[in-house]
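Section 3.1 - Work completed
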Amino acid sequence: MSTLAAIGVLALLIFVHELGHFSAARLQGIYANKFSIGFGPILLKYQGKQTEYSLRALPLGGFVGFPDDDPESDIPPTDPNLLSNRPILDRAIVISAGVIANLIFAYFLLVVQVSVAGFQQIDYHPGVTVAGIANTLSTAADKAGIQANDVVLAVDQQILGEGKPAIVKLMAEIQTHPNLPITFQVKRGEKTLDIQVTPDATPDGKGQIGVKLVPNADIIIDRSINLIDALKKGAAEFERVIVLTVQGLSQLVTNFGETANQIAGPIKIVEIGSSIAENNATGLLQFGALISVNLAVMNILPLPALDGGQLAFLLLEGLLGKPLPMKIQETVMQTGLFLLLGLGVFLVIRDTANLSSVQQFFK
């Protein structure tokens, strides 16, 4: 059920995106003869009065089709309600409406989240918490007398600080001192103790003490008290998600080699969503908002086959006073679509191969 819930969230976000395009066209009286979720062979379809609605085999997105691109359409090419015959502004509204719909929907999800379950916030405190000791009496931590729930504040009088950087600093000290004594300043309840620990040496020459480390922090649930409060907190979280998404995209562009493996396809997204649904169903709202924002930001990029690519063509048309030759536009868009589908198929194969159930099957 959790997997189906995650798939449902992803399908809903694609639906919202395409509905944005479709609604912007229809509200302006522009013809739209196809509305599809997915690409490739049609699995299900319904022919409405003006539009064919379909569900297709490849769940890598969706599209809204216009009679302008349909050679079988009997609408005269001079009809003013064809998308290509509308002014640049009308067309820009239709093209950008999918991105706008995803952003609005993301904000809506965050408002619902903070109203129903609240946002989880982490209140960090100085030090690193020992979450557990390895189940053996031969670990360095056990020999030294380290206990679960101890908080390590400093190592050899070096203050660790707080949060994840504190864990990194502590692990570095442990790993660089194999078979060498180091002194932990430990807070245990109301007491502060100095405990000498000698890390064991691993086969690769690094030190280890046999503990699980987590940040010293409290989880705070921030829930809205009324609608106005929900709108404000939803807006603050929406801004945070936008900033994180743009920062992640910037890192991908500037440091592609190290961040390319973080790109996730539909399979990986469903796996993450499924895990969230199992542990905290309401977390799917925040997860959906994050994916919706990412979908919007990716689509607005000026790349062929994406909304941003089509907006780039409109910008050139406005600057030149006439559209680029259709042959050039078609070549660029078809190449972009081919590359986009190729990337999608690659991500599906890679993410499927990395699923724990698949790896277990081939062991």
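Second construct:
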Amino acid sequence: MQALAPTPQQVAPAGRTLDVDSLTVRYGAAVAVDGVSLGIEPGEVVALLGPSGCGKTTLLRVIAGFVRQAGGRVLVDGTAIDHLPANQRNVGIVFQNYALFPHMTVAENVAYGLRARGQRGASVEQRVERMLEMVQLGAFRARLPRQLSGGQQQRVALARALAVEPSILLLDEPFAALDRNLRLDMQIEVKRLQRQLGLTTILVTHDQDEAMSVADRIAVMNKGKVEQFDTPVAIYDQPQTLFVNGFIGTTNLLPGKVAGLEAGIAVVALGTGATLRLPAPRDIAAGAPVFLSVRPEQLVLEATPTAESWPVEVGLSLPLGSQLVHEVRTVDGTAMKIVEPRRRSPTEVPRRFCLLAPDARPSLFPRSTP
């Protein structure tokens, strides 16, 4: 009896596992990457996100084989590849500037990696045609890079990286040179292709919106270390450090003090005059100075006071598309931003009291000084 074809749910991801084990990179006395470990699943998209100089590009270049680490290992499917030169690691990479050969046509650029590996003949032509159709550039095969738009050049670079059937795809800020609308289109396109091929992919970016929209998980880096490695939703809703909290999204930091701890609940007295009861993190002690971090959309303005509200003075109220952004100041001088759906006119009489929204999930962080 003929075996049934596997269903899509039964097909294993085409991508490989990638493990970064205690990687350290030094440039003289400076430590660029400091003992970073990451475990990346087959077919997963992981974004390395952080400010300039945090070590994310250096980490990508170590994986690609362009930079030699001082310590640690890179493993693909459990096998170390550190001893292999860059051209033998079977990784595809798309650079920020695309790095296309200006004297070669689109088809020749896509074929370059295949020919460099010694492939010739009809198989190369077939592979090039398939890649160009995949990125929707079949009609542009005879053009030179200068005859293409930025988005089209990026697609050529992506097709060239995919043509060699890499085990890992590396994207080094590939959308940075594109305008906002085209950037979003290309993010969707890259995500579509990555899902279609099931490739394990690492994206380096300093754009948090890009990381949140494209990645399955995000490694937030700071000063050579990974501060949190988690899903986009978890990083936004449950930041583990004050750096991650401030780097991802917009937040308000309200100074306060832990007035008491009761069965895992912290009683927090804010400088605004309000007292709130919140889940207590493990590292919070009674009497400790803290920051309460609240996202602008987690705050509500009201006209009348309640037991859990605090007074504020509303400064500017600005319409921003479908939202209304309020700039307010508390009685202790703390500036805050509050975002709500634009159902009211900015010229209405400002409301004078603020409180947490019913579904708000604020975060508590210790302060180093009172």
